[in-house]
Amino acid sequence: MSANPSDVQTLIHISGFSPEDEKHLRHLGQHLVPRLPELTDRFYGRLLADERTRPHVEGRVEQLKKTHIAWLTELFSGDYGEPFMARQRRIGEVHVAAGIPPLFVAASMSFLRGAFPEEIEIAARAVGDPIGICTGVVLRLLDLCQYLIDSAYEAERMKRLTAATGMSLVLLENLITLRPLRN
């Protein structure tokens, strides 16, 4: 089970992510992509400095940095169709399989949401796009990525609940969405 396509479309609609956003992301990418290695170095510096995240990255930092830079670069490709979304879901599946707690994904996205605005301001000025709009575009895309990545954690939890209780996935979903009885 992965993110419900209808839910993904609702997120995209409500967030306002649009073809115009895709254009802004491509423009920003011209100036942001060269800065991504430095941003990635700062990010992995934080991971290595934290006693809880360090064991998940030690001994693999250089390879993980390459993967992280490739992912960040893709964010500015301008192509956000189903293949892009499938890759985000796959990232979540890899994190689940590696035993990376969802807290770490949320913290990573929080780092990016905090680090990107300054970089976006510089890039937006360089391409002549409005800073506020460009910042919003990147934040909306990060939200979409986090939702898709997090869906792998939800799917794994549902799988474990199904195995532990013997209940079908449909029954569990129905129980979760059950409305409380009114008194």
Automatic annotation (TrEMBL):
This is Globin-sensor domain-containing protein. InterPro entries: Globin-like_sf, Globin-sensor_dom, Globin/Proto, Protoglobin_sensor_dom. One of its GO terms (molecular function) is heme binding. Residues 6-157 form the Globin-sensor domain.
